[in-house]
Amino acid sequence: MKKFDLMKKILDSGALAVVRAKPERVLEIAEGIVKGGIPVMEISYTNADAPEAIDLVHKQFGSSILVGAGTVNNGATAKDAIAHGAGFLYSPMFDREVMSLANEYQIPYAPGCSTVTEAVEAMRAGATFIKYFPYGGLLGPDVIKTIKTPIPEMPLLESGGVDASNVKQWFEAGVEVVGIGSALSKGSQDTIEVSARSIREEIDAFRSTKK
Q1: The whole model's pTM is what?
Q2: CATH class of the 2-209 domain in this structure
Q3: From CA 199, how far away is CA 194, in angstroms rounded?
Q4: Which residues contact 122 (CB under 8 A, 6 or more apart)?
């Protein structure tokens, strides 16, 4: 049940912060997004101190935030992230070893896929969400609609160019979750909190129309 519980937390939030920052800054961002109502964040392994940042978030925020690892491109990185308690894995590419480890340890995996064939293969292998990368951020919500029309069951996560002004458009197009970079990682802690709250309100407003 672990994977499904973690997946539910991501789905309930509907959004996660995509963070590339030093550990001290990661804590500030975490404080802002939690207060703003988006208690999920991905810490990118493009930073060598990502494991330290994950540990610090766990220590300071405990279960009030779900923290995952990003830019997980190979099995070695996945093993390290899992060892540090990452609650999900996030990547710009699909890697079968990462997928195997995510399945073994029962945590969600969101690989980046560039073609529909690759995305379907990843989904069949057990991917929790498909990040249609990089075309979602380049082409906008229409590409999501195009994919969802013949494959409505494909769980899509959009990452790139999302903020409070357009998040509703992405959900209308059919995404399940959005990954948000600059809008949830730039500025002061208070600025991030305000931005997170605005995004939270937009997602909740969209969902209220679907009930």
Answers
A1: 0.94
A2: alpha beta
A3: 9
A4: 94, 99, 111, 113, 130
